[in-house]
Amino acid sequence: MERKIQKIAVLTSGGDSPGMNAALRAVVRSAIYNSCECLAVYQGYQGLIDNDIRPINARGVNNIINKGGTILKSARCLEFRTKEGRQKAFDNLQKHQVDALVVIGGDGSFTGALIFSQEFNFPVIGIPGTIDNDIHGTRFTLGYDTALNTVVDAIDKIRDTASSHNRLFFVEVMGRDAGHIALNAGIGAGAEEVLIPEEDMGLNRLLDSLNRSKKSGKSSSIVVIAEGDKTGENVFEIAAYVEKNLPHYEVRVSVLGHMQRGGAPSCFDRVLASRMGVHAVESLLKGHDQMMVGIVDDRMVLHPLEDAIKGKTPINKNLIRVSDILSI
Ligand code: F6P
């Protein structure tokens, strides 16, 4: 039997990403558009447990579509991994007479959401918010496009100094254990090599490639390395190995780190967030539950949370081929 959804709570969880605020804005405004009330949960799942839950209206999300981060704050919450913690969260939602929950986050956040929904038979819909773009069931996650542009801009700046000093730069990028940011930003920034966890290039092939670049007259080079890459221990170890074996290169390392998580969301991410927020609310009102909102072939879809948290978006092998060809 479909239950009447009249009050929807929304939270952000896990690593923040540009576009989370735009998605929050869309959830709040589409809930109100559909004559529902909306409650904002602050500090992620910890806020559910601590009852940090407050009403939010259409004006409460003014001027945030262009803001990175999340005004609801986010946190990784160990207590929510316990039944007692989830019970407290459920009791608080009951006290506020909340009928459904929207979780904006990554696969870790969705895991908690699914367990909670199953334990308490409580409707939950997920919106994929992570820069990693590694969640199965959607072509794009919120923040990925913005992170790509941030990384390409950073590498463009590094290229200026690399070419001025005839240096070889190793640039480490985020992605946890997925190479989507490294591969796409590497191609976009014209990197000579891209090292990703999905494809073990091997150190010898890297040396050969860099030697070829040098012999072909390149005076400087850039190698983009995904933080999850397993070619070596870490980017510093790989750089030291290359410097030792290719003495004609002056080597430097740049770890881009958390700047990739910040910044004003791109237009693409703002539009994606707006579409996902509306689709999440409309899906809840139609009785959908334990699903993640996604975009496939430019259409909004629903994908079972159970599958979204298991699968990873595979790397596009053709992009690896393009990267190899264009780095001659
Ligand atoms: O999942 C998003 C992400 O930015 C990953 O790319 C990165 O490895 C991780 O979060 C960093 O986590 P934290 O912010 O806890 O250091």
Keywords:
Rossmann fold; alpha/beta; four-stranded parallel sheet; seven-stranded mixed sheet; 11 strands; binds 6-O-phosphono-beta-D-fructofuranose
Describe the model.
The termini are far apart. It is built from 11 helices and 11 strands. It folds into 2 domains: 183 residues, 3-Layer(aba) Sandwich (Rossmann fold), CATH 3.40.50; 117 residues, Phosphofructokinase domain (Rossmann fold, 3-Layer(aba) Sandwich). The mean pLDDT is 95. Helix 1 runs parallel beside helix 9, helix 5 crosses helix 6 and helix 6 runs parallel beside helix 11. It has a 7-stranded mixed sheet with strand order 3-2-1-4-5-10-11, sandwiched between helices. Strands 7-8-6-9 form a 4-stranded parallel sheet, sandwiched between helices. Helices cover 41% and strands 18% of the residues. By secondary structure, the protein is of the alpha/beta class. The radius of gyration is 22 Å and the shape is elongated. 6-O-phosphono-beta-D-fructofuranose binds next to loops.
